[in-house]
Amino acid sequence: MVFSRLQEDIQTVMQRDPAARSRWEVLTCYPGLHAVWLHRLSHALWTKGFKWLGRFCSHITRILTGIEIHPGAIVGRRVFIDHGLGVVIGETAEIGDDCTIYQGVTLGGTSFYKGVKRHPTLAHGVIVGAGAKVLGGFTVGAHSRIGSNAVVLKAVPEGATAVGIPAKIILAEPAHTDSQEQLAKLCDKAGFPAYGVTASDDPVSQIINQLIDHINAQENRIDTLYALLSQSGVQCPERKDSGVKVEHFDI
Ligand SMILES: CC(C)(COP(=O)(O)OP(=O)(O)OC[C@H]1O[C@@H](n2cnc3c(N)ncnc32)[C@H](O)[C@@H]1OP(=O)(O)O)[C@@H](O)C(=O)NCCC(=O)NCCS
Question: N or C, which terminus of the chain has less Cβ within 10 Å?
């Protein structure tokens, strides 16, 4: 169980950081990964009542990684803190599964009242750009993106993009997406949008995707034609023997 969670975390980094070259490199050189792992320990201590020990563990983590996560904060699965230096995550913050946080991000509070929710909740799949400050006890909706250096002071809807100081919504939802189902399909198809930039935003990527779909459709039609011809007794040379190097296109 513990081992499979660690593997899942390493796999997450491999998928989301284009610069990650090997699992060994991820295991040894990613402070964000170390911070999340050590936070699990400090959070367990905190919730079991060893408050000082939990706090001390989080302090040691901060010295080692430059990332400060309060032991009371709730961090979901496959959360990736990239680079991480200067990240501060407050006591009542909650980070959903599959969120990505870049260096210099603060999930902070604006009130001094103890025992109330002072820090934000990130729903699943949120990307928070470098240097962004998300301040207050509101929710940042699933799959939304916070631009680098934004200062977010109120709730962000699902799938939205917020930038600026104070942050404003520039895209209410990802391009070509008008339902949760479509959003999930888009994320499955495009994979993780590194640095918050999705393939669907980029016209060149869109054209390449259309070309890939077109090539696949052509390959299927050719295969069907070959099958029909050989069923009708027409001797066709194997596609690979026809003098043209033909291999199925590997997406
Ligand atoms: C917010 C973000 C996700 C938007 O990406 P996008 O959907 O590709 O948006 P675009 O680049 O097309 O920009 C759309 C508009 O928002 C503006 N904008 C984009 N990012 C912004 C930011 N961080 N702050 C202020 N304005 C921003 C653009 O100037 C553009 O404005 P315009 O329409 O008036 O020209 C992206 O810009 C971002 O900040 N990603 C985080 C990257 C990061 O932190 N990387 C760290 C790697 S170590």
Answer: N
Whole domain around residue 232: which residue ranges?
Answer: 205-241
CA distances 223 to 141, 158, 243, Å, are 45, 42, 17
Task: Look at 118-127, 128-137, 212-221 and tell me which has the smallest mean pLDDT.
Answer: 212-221
The structure's pTM equals: 0.75
Q: What tokens appear for 165 in the block?
A: 């100081």
CA-proximal residue: ligand 1, atom 9 (nearest): 197
Q: How far away, in angstroms, is 163 Cα from ligand 1 center?
A: 7
Q: Is the CB of 105 under 6 A from ligand 1?
A: no
Burial (Cβ within 10 Å: 0-12, 13-18, ≥19) of residue 204: exposed
Domain check: are 91 and 170 in the same one?
A: yes
Distance, in Å, from the CA atom of 56 to the CA atom of 71, rounded to the nearest integer, reads 9
Are 18 and 139 members of one domain?
Answer: yes
Query: What's the CA-to-centroid distance between 149 and ligand 1, angstroms?
Result: 10
8-12, 206-210, 212-216, 229-233 — which one is most confidently predicted on average?
A: 8-12
